[in-house]
Amino acid sequence: MATISIKGVQKSYGTFTALHGIDLEIADQEFLVLLGASGCGKTTLLRIVAGLNSPSRGSVKIGGNEVTHLPPRSRGISMVFQNYAVFPHLTVFENIAFGLRMQKLEKAEVERRVRRCAGLMHIEGLLERYSGQLSGGQRQRVAVARALAMEPSVLLMDEPLSNLDALLRLEMRAELKSVLQESRTTTVYVTHDQVEAMSLADRIAVMHGGHIVQVATPIEVYRNPATRFVGGFIGSPPMNFLPAEAVEGGWQVAGKRYEGPRADGLEFGIRPEDLEPAEAGFAGEVRVIEPLGAHQLVTMNVAGQLFRAVLDSDRRVSLGETLTLAPRPDRVRWFDTASGLAVAA
Amino acid sequence: MSAVTETEAAAFVPADARRAGRMLNAAIIILLCVWVLLPIYLVLVNALSDPQTVTGWPKHFVPTFDLGSLSFFISYAGVLKALGNSVVVAVLTMVLSLGFGAPAGYALARFDFPGKGVFRLLVLMTRAFPLPLLALPLAVMFIRTGLDDSLFGLALVHTTLALPFSVLITASLFSGIPFELEEAAWTLGCTRLQAVRKVVLPLALPGIAASGVFAFVTSWNEVFAAAVLTIRNRTLTAFLIQSLDVSPLPLKFAGAAVLVLPALIFLFAVRKYLFSLWGIANR
Ligand SMILES: Nc1ncnc2c1ncn2[C@@H]1O[C@H](COP(=O)(O)OP(=O)(O)OP(=O)(O)O)[C@@H](O)[C@H]1O
Ligand SMILES: [Mg+2]
């Protein structure tokens, strides 16, 4: 149980700067997800918290203690690696017991903790096996059990589910969530999968190009993206953007006038599911129709831009038809054209 | 996973083509075995036969199980001592070349340091000078430092012969072990050294054993430096070259057998590690 405080952390590799002055406060028992596209610096940041990399500048505190220059073993953390890093020369039991033996715990206590964590991850039956005799999903469970057995104050996970197939990932996600809710360990979880981030996180920190662009609850990140990038990165399909033109008392978007904030240049943003068929609104020719079961994803051409809408599948839509959709007024978002930052309406 | 796809793929190959492939495979294996085993077999047959059979005609391929040559050889003055010297020098060589080679190999595998490529090259360069070229200056230096005619001195020379391979073999071994495993050990409470001891060494053991055997055999077989640098403390090879030159054929076979056997036995003892079952893989 511990807070994590990251202050001004910067990391450079030669002339390349992987992290630009990261500031992040993580509360005790919080589940924070670092979300971002490949190469944005998630792993680098996580490894700096773990003590596997050292920052070029800045400091890291765990539980109020300065740990910036401490080795991983002195930080009270444990980590689940992307490739699991299960020791191939040890049995599952010895893998889970590894850290406990390093702490020189009593035999009975080691046994008790190993059995408990194996039970949590449903691998009691595999304790005598070697990692070569396990499936990817089972190895993943061993890695998590090994980390949990340490009873760390902070648990760090780097894309632990990314090597699993879709179904197993779904199952493991739910299981991880319930186990971690129970253990109430402060957790930092790295992923580039937004669904995973949404479903697990107390808060999501969205990273982009070595910056943290937004830290907020999943629903807040989804509803009120702090930048145009976040709106376009989160949500599947992502937010629609249309250029806006300043006119008397508002903004002209695709031929229609909307009230909007005052600014030099704005872009109009709306999520595809926040559009409804209406008499007046954005008119566009239907280009692609993708039935998704409960919904259908309709791609249109509005004012020369690709524009997506998620509509009820009962509604009949035909190719080439001109559809008119109105945005839900409370869901309209505005972004500064120059900076990409959200502008409050 | 790959095994499955292989069997599936094999199912589409015609049966006789597969049989031909298997037979070719078997033929190659048999050829290689004969290549390696036949000389050893002949040496052993002749060492275990009585002198008349060895020198006589026709040649025999079944030993007469006469220990005369061997027992004469063993009781020959100085042989046992030379044998003991050889073992001591070979073990020292093994310990020294692993003791220096494995850490150097680890450094090559895990750290980026200026001059790494040059270092790698220099390690091999030590083998570019023929030993005879080095032996005389070495002998002079050994006499000055008092290392001449000592087993330790000879082991040092043998170590310089074996070390480059120890360094390069262990370097490739260590770089084959995922660094992530070490990092995982650090996060589980290990210091850097503990992580190496508890994770890297056990995984590298088969290869390290092989590299140790290699160093042992390098020293065991080495003749030139042994002959030049020792006088009273002859190793077996040096002793043999000096005394058996003038000995009858049966004794030469006995000497050869005594030279070959320890290497064979040693390899046999570590075969478990050489054909180790666990794969060094992260997944
Ligand atoms: N040792 C290194 N030397 C040079 N550049 C590095 C090094 N490690 C990482 N980088 C660079 O730093 C950036 C961030 O890397 P990082 O591994 O943190 O990305 P990531 O967000 O974890 O990506 P992914 O989702 O693909 O794992 C990348 O552009 C990468 O090329
Ligand atoms: Mg990464």
Q: Given the helix and strand composition of chain A, which structural class is it? A: alpha+beta
The side-by-side strand order for the widest beta sheet of chain A comes to 6-7-8-3-9-10
Show unreliable segments of chain B: 1-5, 276-283
Round the mean pLDDT of chain A to the nearest integer and report it. Answer: 92
Number of strands of chain B: 0
Number of strands of chain A: 20
Q: Give the helix level of chain B as a range of percent.
A: over 70%
For this structure, the CATH topology of the largest domain in chain A is: Rossmann fold
Structural class by SSE content of chain B: mainly alpha
The CATH homologous superfamily name of the largest domain in chain A equals: P-loop containing nucleotide triphosphate hydrolases
Binned strand content of chain B: under 5%
Which CATH architecture of the largest domain in chain A is right? Answer: 3-Layer(aba) Sandwich
* Main sheet overview of chain B: none
CATH top-level class of the largest domain in chain B: Mainly Alpha
Strands, helices and their partners?
The complex is a heterodimer of chains A (345) and B (283).
Chain A: E1 4-13, E2 16-26, E3 31-36, H1 42-50, E4 57-62, E5 65-66, E6 77-80, H2 92-102, H3 107-120, H4 136-149, E7 154-158, H5 166-183, E8 186-191, H6 194-200, E9 203-208, E10 211-216, H7 218-223, H8 228-233, E11 240-247, E12 250-253, E13 256-258, E14 266-270, E15 275-291, E16 295-302, E17 305-312, E18 322-327, E19 333-336, E20 342-343
Parallel strand pairs in A: 3-8, 3-9, 6-7, 7-8
Antiparallel strand pairs in A: 1-2, 1-4, 4-5, 9-10, 11-12, 11-14, 12-13, 14-19, 15-16, 15-18, 16-17, 19-20
Helix pairs in contact in A: 2-3, 2-4, 3-4
Chain B: H1 2-10, H2 15-47, H3 51-55, H4 68-75, H5 79-110, H6 116-125, H7 131-145, H8 151-175, H9 179-187, H10 192-221, H11 224-229, H12 236-243, H13 249-269, H14 271-274
Helix pairs in contact in B: 2-13, 4-13, 5-8, 5-10, 5-12, 8-10, 9-10, 10-13
